Amino acid sequence: MSAYTLTRRRLAGAALALVFALAPAGAAFAADKLKLGVMGGDEERIWEVAKKVAAKDGLDIELVSFSDYAIPNEALEKGDLDANAFQHKPYLDSQIAARGYKIVPIGYTLVQPIALYSKKLKAFADLKEGAVIGIPNDPSNGGRALKLLEANGLIKLKTADGQVPSVLDVTDNPKKVEFKEIEASQLANLLPDLDGAVINTNYALGAGLTPAKDALIQESRTNNPYGNFIAVREADKDKPIFKKLVASYQNQEVADFINANFKGAIQPAW
Question: E strands of the chain, at which residues?
Fold first, then answer.
């Protein structure tokens, strides 16, 4: 071997050693990457903060935005996404029962208490006989809306333990309220045509409604069973990359952003 070749190898080795010496401790040369499905709007804004936190830990998150609850689980099941973060357990359970998805939660994100809004009424007590109330047309959020109305004395429901109620389970309706089951994302748009509507917080915020100011009634924010979470395919749940994903959201920087920007309408759920 020539002296020239030896010199080149020594120089290359020295350069490589210098790169390692200058790299920050724990730095990754190639970031882990994944596609994450989220709801557009405020949830996506929060995930933009988590995405920056994740990048510091060598995780590159590509956010894929949706406006329809029905799509992210199908995309995850088919492999078009690596994870999603938009739903609570009753919704996932209903999707699994209907479609057989092999999807599991791996870490909580946020909780958004659902509420009743109206463009026509100033107070919940002002609901008149025969009022028309819109509720989400998916089973879990529709049932959640009915439970909210029952908790505030408008109706009574009869369901078995663990059963998600539907309008067919209303056993007492003294004001003869009519329920319109509507796609959750459309309830805010149709609010002027209804006496009231129970609207998920992300859609309410997107329509310029402020729960603290505009809600006539709202779920309790404590011990709320409807906390959202990150979900993955069951076969992937123990992969280290998803531990990084959860940690990127369950972070003080993210909690501070939520608390500073949403005035309790959205709260950390971990």
Answer: 32-39, 59-66, 83-88, 103-108, 110-111, 115-117, 132-136, 156-157, 170-172, 178-182, 196-199, 217-218, 228-233, 267-268
**Strand, coil or helix: 98:** helix
Q: Each residue's pLDDT tens digit in the chain (270 positions)?
A: 544 444 444 544 444 444 434 444 333 335 699 999 999 999 999 999 999 999 999 999 999 999 999 999 999 999 999 999 999 998 999 999 999 999 999 999 999 999 999 999 999 999 999 999 999 999 989 999 999 999 999 999 998 777 889 999 999 999 999 999 999 999 999 999 999 999 999 899 999 999 989 999 999 877 888 999 999 999 999 999 999 999 999 999 999 999 999 878 899 999
From the list 103, 119, 244, 100, the residue with the least C-alpha distance to 189 is 119
- C-alpha to C-alpha distance for 226 and 265, rounded to whole angstroms: 14
Q: Model-level pTM?
A: 0.75
- Other Cβ atoms less than 10 A from the Cβ of 24: the count is 5
- Look at residue 147 and give its three-state secondary structure: helix
Secondary structure of residue 247 in the 3-state scheme: helix
